[in-house]
Amino acid sequence: MEEEEFDDNELIETEEKSTDSKDNSATKFQSPVPFLRQFRNLIFGKRTPDMFTRITFYINSVLWTTFIIWHILSYATLTSRDLFMQQKGLPIEAIVEARGAELGFESGEFLSRLITYHAISVICWIVMFVGLIFLYRKLKTFVYLILGATVFYIGMSIFYIGFRYFMEDTTAYDKVALLIIIVSTLLHSYLLKNGRDEDGHVSFFGLGSRED
After folding, report:
1. Fewer CB within 10 Å, N- or C-terminus of the chain?
2. Pick from 184, 206, 199: nearest CA to 56
3. φ, ψ for residue 35 (rounded to 5)?
4. Are 47 and 211 in contact (CB under 8 A)?
């Protein structure tokens, strides 16, 4: 009898350890979705904004993505020009220098300015992304971040690189995209200040905010 009781107790302990092991394994390999949701809430907040705010945010986010990818790739290409010449035979420096001469730059000056321009542009677009987060969360300071970064970006292109560069080397897509960002930001800022319902809550075209 004592041996049977001992065997039963040992069996129970073994099953409990197995259960604990499975629970620990499940916890260890659980889905990352809850963490991602918490991270998303930390950045964008728990409240889902109205439809107009979301549309403005999504459109500007797409434009933001194209700009920052372009400047990161351009910076990487210019700073790795020797590698491209060795591996691919692409005379990037010669091409840039030739264009710089056409724009009236001294030898080496245009390349140096382009590298600085793309590096600072990346910083501008990072600041703008912070502004887009503020826009999504309906923080009024978003307008200063987005417009400030956009105006500085355009000004650097015109005054640091040159007006001719802005007119000839900046694509029509870039100019239209920048115009969309500026107009949509101003419009959203105006509606955020004036589009309020009787309770003082922001209301865009009758669409209020709701909880997730």
Report:
1. N
2. 184
3. -65, -45
4. yes
- Kindly give, in sequence order, each residue whose CB lies less than 8 Å from that of residue 84, ignoring residues fewer than 6 positions away: 77, 90, 92
Q: How far is CA 195 from the centre of its chain?
A: 27
| Separation CA 107–CA 94 (nearest Å) | 10
Q: How many CA atoms lie within 13 A of 45 on its CB side?
A: 14
Predicted pLDDT of residue 46: 72
For 110-150, the pLDDT digits (tens) are: 999 999 999 999 999 999 999 999 998 888 899 999 999 99
DSSP for residue 202: B
Using alpha carbons only, give the angle 25, 35, 53 rounded to the nearest 5 degrees.
160
Sign for the pseudo-dihedral over CA of 181, 182, 184, 185: positive
pLDDT score of 39: 55
Helix, strand, or coil (residue 185): helix
| Distance separating alpha carbons of residues 49 and 212, to the nearest angstrom | 10
Q: What is the dihedral of CA 151, 140, 208, 180, to 10 degrees?
A: 0
Cβ contacts of residue 61 below 8 Å, gap of 6+?
132
Cα end-to-end distance, the chain, whole Å: 60
CA distance 200 to 130: 26
Residue 199 pLDDT class (50, 70, 90 cuts) = very low
pTM: 0.74
